[in-house]
Design a protein that fits this description.
The protein is an alpha/beta fold and 362 residues long. It contains 14 helices and 7 strands. Helix 9 links the parallel strand 2 and strand 3.
Amino acid sequence: MNRIPPNKLGKISDQVKKLSKGCGIKVSKKIINETEIWCLNHEITQQFFDVICYLGTLNLYSKNDDIIYDIENSLPYIDIDLPDDIESLHGLSLLFELLSSNKDIFDFEALSFYSNSTRGENYIQNIKQRPHINLEDIIDYEEYHAKILAGLKSSVKAQEPSSNLRCNGLFLDSDNRLQITDELYRILLESVVNNDGKLNAMISYLDFRTRFPGLLIEAVALMVLSGKEVRILFRSENTKEHVGMRIFRKKVENKLKEIYFGKKSVDEEEYDEYVPVNIDSPRFFREWNSEKNTPFGNKLMLDINGNLHAKIFMNHRKGIVSSANLMMTSLTENIEVGVKVVNQELEDLQIFFDTAWRCVYG
């Protein structure tokens, strides 16, 4: 099963107690204490084994000029909090040595008996997992880019309201009926146009009966190809009326194929081989689901399983928080209210988003 057998940790804990009495491997008392803590925390130990297994695969295929991950430098790339009273991976390394008789915890083949690199990819950060895409090699990229920009620009009102209040209401004057919808287009346009653009969003409900979701998929595909930050957190439900993460992700993948290969028909194997973007990676899309909580999420939420109900859409310079779902009724008919967020409030909103993002892993 590529997991640590739970009964093994108990036996290793007994070995560690012998080490503390001066028997066997000579290590510091601090590392012995940390190893005992790892033995008592099976779930988080498994998470760390998985992510180190993933880093081990990167080491295996690294070129000479790429970073090699090891005990000393890997923590900044691991998106999991260490257990209390642990400061390094040395105790975990000792646990692995006692478990497998192998001193190198980053030995992918040895570690893979007790872990899974695919699970581990869920817990990495600040790592470029695939080679950079040369956009000049994509024949139709500029054509798609211009087409999507034209679509976004034609949907954005020329005059942005002076206040930060945004309202949708058909009873308002004709130039201000859909301020929230206009702001969504404006934020998406800025994300695509700006070289430093990014997109972070919380989506409660989504459908494809209006123009915006289609343009969102096209813009997300362009941003993924150009290496920009895209992170979208979805509500877990997926019904006939409401689009969930898997349908949205599949539509983005199809758009990536269309842009990357043009009119050429390709199968999944050819796509996976040639397109250096892993769209299944949780670095792009995650689902608010209590069954997919990270240890960080479990620690924060305990037994609280609230639904994702927030509607947040933000880029590198501003965001909007509103009552409006990305559905036809919300974007074109309903009475909705929201607020544009900038400066310190945007920073606070980003912290809120980052915290929620770390609570779930896929």
